[in-house]
Specification:
mainly alpha; 3-stranded mixed β-sheet; transmembrane; 65% helix; 203 residues; 6 helices; single chain
Amino acid sequence: DSSDDIEDVSLFDADDDASRRSKKSKIRHPVASFFHLFFRVSAIVVYLLCELLTSSFIACMVTIILLLSCDFWAVKNVTGRLMVGLRWWNQVDDDGKSHWVFEARKVSAQGSKASSEAESRIFWLGLITCPMIWVIFAFSALFSFKVKWLAVVVMGVVLQGANLYGYIRCKVGSRKNLTSMATNYLGKQFLRQVRFPGFWKPS
């Protein structure tokens, strides 16, 4: 939304001693890493197996929605902050104007980050892959005329897609900045082709 104001604020100061001890390949927050994947993967597994486990649609729907809600809260408020040092939220002021607020963990004096590369890969892999699976489920439910499951699948797309959207904006900035980055890149490629025709070849 073009009317949204974007504000960057600092997250809690990183613990310098913990940053020195951490290694890039080490998972420093195993519990957070586990629950980052547990709720969202469990929701997908329950969706796939619920008709085999029980004939109660209500029980399956409630279980899936509870898992999706727990996942949304955990990823938004806990695992993002611990695993990649990012957090986001949207707030509305007294005038009814929407504000996106992003937090990023400060880098220590040595320039090292508290989060590890392994945790970062786990975080972004789970964050991106699971919403894509729910989108596939949505098309499958739509084309197979499983109308009763469509609301559950849409809930999965909305909740997990909201976290994905929030963290992407938190990582790369506003949509305007993202668009300008893409425009600048394409502009440079075009100028290179004009100045040196036939010089640039795809690798």
